[in-house]
Design a protein that fits this description.
It contains 1 helix and 10 strands, in the order ββββββββββα. It is mainly β.
Length: 121
């Protein structure tokens, strides 16, 4: 299996670095594009689970995303895929992430100040 779907329903994502064009080569500055010719962007996210564990991840997504640092977001169609390469005789490996979109997440509203507290009194 090449792409591994990620269950985002149990995670909270926060944007930690703004969208920036992904480079094919840092030497030439060539910007990566998808099959449709759209620029591929990288968005830095933190992913926290209910136990408080946090991971930082860079997520690739086609097209510029309207998200800002500190914003709670939802990566739509998030998949992970393992990669491996040998460069200058050194083997490197990791997990890369890709999403269809990074959307602003619906933030639950805080309970009103008069409801539960007033009922308990």
């Amino acid at each position: 299996m090449r792409n591994i779907p990620v269950d985002v329903s149990v995670l909270t994502f926060v944007c930690v670095s703004p969208p920036r064009p992904k480079l094919v080569s840092q030497d030439t500055g060539e910007v990566k594009v998808d099959r449709a010719g759209n620029t591929v962007f990288t968005v830095g996210l933190s992913a926290a689970d209910p136990m408080g564990r946090v991971e930082l991840m860079n997520v690739s997504v086609s097209g510029d995303q309207d998200v800002t640092i500190g914003q709670i977001v939802a990566p739509v169609g998030l998949v992970a895929f393992p990669w491996e390469q040998t460069r200058n005789g050194e083997k490197r490996w990791g997990i890369a992430y890709r999403a269809n979109q990074i959307a602003p997440a619906a933030v639950p509203s805080a309970p009103s100040s008069g409801s539960a507290a007033a009922d308990a009194a």
